[in-house]
Amino acid sequence: MAGLYQLASRFYCDYEAYLIGYKPSCDSFEGRASNPDSMKYMVKFQVKQEDLGVWWCAPDEKTKHTNTFTLKLHSLKFTISGTCPIGVLRFEYTMVCTVDGASGVGFDVLFYRRGLEMAKFSHVSYGSYCVVIFSRYEYTPSCGAAHRTDSKPDRVQYLLKFLVKKEDVGDWWCAQSQHKKPTNTFTLKLHIGGKAEAASSARRSSTCVALTILLPIACQLINGVAFKR
Predict the structure, then answer these.
(1) HSE on the CB side for 156, CA within 13 Å?
(2) What is the DSSP letter of 199?
(3) pLDDT for 53-88, tens place per residue?
(4) Do 138 and 162 form a contact (C-beta atoms < 8 A)?
(5) Which three-class secondary structure state does DSSP give residue 160?
(6) Domain boundaries along the sequence of the chain
(7) Residue 65 DSSP code
(8) Whether this model's pTM surpasses 0.85
C-alpha cells in the first residue's frame, strides 16, 4: 500500500510510493525524540470491502513479518419504523431510522421511499453527532445526541418528518448506502374515505376509534395494530 523508509540521520521518515486513497505518515519529531528506539509508520484510508482481511508490515516483500492484523468490518444494523402503520393526508408523519452499533464509528444514513433517496445524514464518530447532508423539499430531517437512546448507548435514531402525501404511500427503508441491502422495509398505508370507513375500522378493533380527525392520536396509542387500506 505504501513504501515508507527512515532517514537514519534525522528524526523523521519519507515515503517512496503509495496507492491513491492511502495516505502514509510517520511519527512526529516530538514522538520520535521521546522514544528514539521506536518509530511508528501509519497508512490512513477510508475502509473499503477489499481492505478487509490480514495486514502486516515488513522491511520488504521477502522478509518474514513478525505478526499480522486482521481488519474486520464493523457491524451496523439499520431498522426503519413509522409513528403509525397508516398515515392521514396532510397530517404530520415521522419516519424513524434506528442504527445499532453506532458507537465510535462514522457512517452515512440514507432514507429511501420506493428506491428514491429522500434524505441523507452523516454520523460523525468523534463526539457522536450527525449532520444533515441532503433532504428533499418539505421533508424535515432531524438527528443528533438528543435522539440517542438511554437504554443502549450504541443505538442512535434519525428522524424524517413530513406532511403525508399520496406519493408517500409504499415501502420505505434506510441504509448506509444505495448498495447496501436494507435490514427491513416499512410500508406506509394511507387512510382514505369518510367517517363510514373510519367507523368500520373502529368496529374491527375495539382499541381504536378510527375517525378521520382522531386517527393520528389513535395511531400514537395503538402503534403496531394492523390497519387495512
Answers:
(1) 26
(2) H
(3) 899 888 888 888 889 999 887 788 999 999 888 999
(4) yes
(5) strand
(6) 2-71, 77-221
(7) P
(8) no
